[in-house]
Amino acid sequence: MSYKVALQFEDGVTRVISCGENELISDAAYRAKINIPLDCRDGACGTCKCHCESGSYEQGFYIEDALTEEEAEKGFMLTCQTKPTSDCVIQVPASSHACKTQAEAHEGCLKSISRDSSSTVVFSLETEQLIQFLPGQYVNIKVPGSDQTRSYSFSSPPGQTELSFLIRDVPKGLMSEYMRHRAQVGERLSFEGPYGTFYLRPTIRPIVMLAGGTGLAPFLSMLQWIRENRTDQPILLVYGVNTEEDLVELDTLEALKRDISEFDYFTVVVDKESNHPKTGYVTDHLQDAHINGGEVDVYLCGPPAMVEAVRVWFKERDIEPRNFLFEKFTSTNQTGDA
Hints:
Elements: E1 2-8, E2 14-20, H1 25-31, E3 49-54, E4 57-59, H2 69-73, E5 76-78, E6 82-84, E7 88-91, E8 104-114, E9 120-126, E10 138-142, E11 149-153, E12 162-168, H3 174-182, E13 188-195, E14 207-212, H4 217-228, E15 235-241, H5 250-259, E16 263-269, H6 288-291, E17 297-302, H7 304-316, E18 323-328
Parallel strand pairs: 1-7, 14-15, 14-17, 15-16, 17-18
Antiparallel strand pairs: 1-2, 3-5, 3-7, 4-6, 8-9, 8-13, 9-12, 10-11, 10-13
Helix pairs in contact: 4-5
């Protein structure tokens, strides 16, 4: 048996390594050619001290000078003496560059593109090799004909060579203009990644997903992964947009609802003149039952105003979710892409 260990570096790069059931995390990292900080290898110096955000592990021998009892209780560990007993997420106090690893460069062929929505473009890239990433992460895609990149979350799950994305169609946006007017199936695009710490953690308690606009993308990736890796925890997605025309991938959500008995979703439209069943903001339709007294993992992806509004909503109700993970997306500039 082996476990997936996600190493989160200080510069936002995350690398996923495979660690055997009886293998030390430091050994697995070095086997993957990742030089995480390490010195004595005996649990005596503390150089390899990292923090385990989630997951379980067995901590071997160490002295208190290297790791205090208080640190151990808070989830700190010495990777030279630690063996995982489940999939883990570990924060490494160093940059990916210092650890001699980095996000990888890739290329993909534009396989499909849909411009059916007036506000969103959906496209997919076909790669020759599998790209290792965690559901919820993103890549930087180079805009053809320029030296600039734009960041987009995968809307497809890991483990396949076809990678899908949703992008907001921003007037005069560099990538928007290309995808809306010039992109042709068969063209090649380069991208780098994966990046980001906004990804699905172990599904061990109820989950609430809050999506704003194209912030839906990482949740599609997560949900498609859950479809193949089932959980017994309830999952609710609240998908908010400005107008009904902004709603996309509803057929995909319906299929996920049919396939995952624990999953449900509803949509909210800001435009109060709309005939949509639910109008206003996503927080207008959150109920106490959804939050489960704070014993819930909340994932939030949307524009900064939405993220701040949700944080205020929880604060005003004096509710602190067990986990609150969020990702803000903004325009590169006033005429850029999100």
